Amino acid sequence: MTVFWTAGMTVLTALGAILLAAAGVAHAARPREHRAVLRAHRLLPAASAAPVAVAVTAAEVLVGATVLAVLLAAPGAAVLPSTAQAALYCAFAGYAAVLRTRRPGLPCGCFGTAEVSWAVVSRAVVLAAGSAGCAVLGAPEPVPDRWACVAAGVVLAMANHLVPVWRGANYRKSGRSA
Questions:
Q1: Beta strands of the chain (E only): which ranges?
Q2: Model pTM?
Q3: What's the domain range around 98?
Q4: Are the beta carbons of 84 and 162 closer than 8 angstroms?
Q5: Would you give the DSSP letter of residue 114?
Q6: Closest CA to 66 of 124, 110, 131, 112
Q7: What pLDDT shows up at residue 134?
């Protein structure tokens, strides 16, 4: 049973790391859009949008890349990076929940222009729990197990992006509005 939970938490941690790194790279590529989204949220003082955007982007890239590298190279050292990732996802879950409650209909700023939803909040909570679980239980030590876990995380990360795209394409084909 412990192997199942260890592998499951590692998959969620790898998924979270991939999504963090991808979001950070996307935010770094479009810093103006990232700052504009944070300003539109109106949850932070307007003057802090630029430094917060830079800090969030740096944290996403640094934590995501570090967690992924550690899971693949030295899983025994995954405690600190996984804990940092869990804390970051807890902060994102809290921010998204407040945004969803106070300013529904605005984009969350994660990926693209999708509205913040309770699914976004739930995703952040699940990824925080998975990262915390990986920090507590540790990542699988045998190389084949850990590569399989990261591969599963890659598949889930791809599904995270492709399923909404496919769903939107199907709505357009059927004539329904998304």
A1: none
A2: 0.81
A3: 2-174
A4: no
A5: P
A6: 131
A7: 87
